[in-house]
Specification:
Length: 370
Amino acid sequence: MPLKPNKVFVRQAIPTYEHIGMVIPPNAKMLPEFKQAISERVPGFEPSPPSEPPTGFTFHYVEAPVDQCLLMDGAFIDNGIYEFEVRDAVLGVFDLPILSKDDEFSWSFSSTSQLAVLAAIKIGETLDIEFDIKFDRVFHVTKYHFLPGFPESGYGTFPIHITIDNLTSKGFRIVSSYEPDSPKTDSRLPFLFGFRVYGRFEGDPEFPIWRELLAQAVRQVLFGRWDLGLLFTAFAVESFIDNLLSAKLSVAGLGEDYTEHVLRVGERRYELYALNYQGMGLSKSQVTKVYERLNSLIFTPRNHLAHGRIMGAEISAEVAVNAIKAAVEFIWDWNPGARQWLLARMKLIRFEDLIDDDLLRACGAEPHAA
């Protein structure tokens, strides 16, 4: 159905402030001075883990662009309550996709751009949104209901249902209705909704191909497609290894044809041995353990799925998430230069800041009364 946008009741903006989202890991250590201060107030106090996957999480944020010291081996963060390793905090983000298809961390990781849309909705009427900026692709829209900042607006007193329809790279349609037997109103003031659109703007820089495949894996898991999440994860790790090997073979001057031959016939175990020889500094047995972990969590279940030994429905959420986490862990450890690509870049905006006097007047309110 074609869009019929009404921009009187719609405001749009590109979030410009960015920070990096992390999960305080279960193994984080509570600072002794903080624990002592709490213990003095609560006798017998014993700290519990700050995060308890798969359901309980505590978050931490750092400013973007990230301080490169935080991406060094063994880097720690002290947030005044806990001390934890950055690597573990980044890895913890990838426990989140199975909890909600609207998880902001996961969509921020798997998108390059966001658009914030504010809409004043009249319940029972469709409202079409036409994007002010050109998207190359749109992946998802999340929605938020918030106070209009206007006295006696009626916020929160009307049970309603809001859904997104006809999502394309050009816009979407908002469909709304009252719940049965609920009170009704003609006012738009109780129904100011924010919509966060995740996708790629036209002209956005491309991810490295392994990173795009990893983003695809996360997006599949967000929608509960565990088998596709596993497949894309395996492709991402294979692409990452091939990328590293190709760069090293190119420096050796062996020629494009021979490089392609090596990448085509190479066994993953021996490819890891070769990469380790170039500077990882691990023993052969340590590299073997890395290979066996990747093989157990990613390649073996992928092969069983691809070869028809198991069906897609037999791949569980746990299998898909463990595969993604194993991939992220491997990429973090084997290429420090790739660590910046593993961060969840959260783009912030206050939807309330998009409310202006013209919108309030259009909704039937006098701004001076706010």
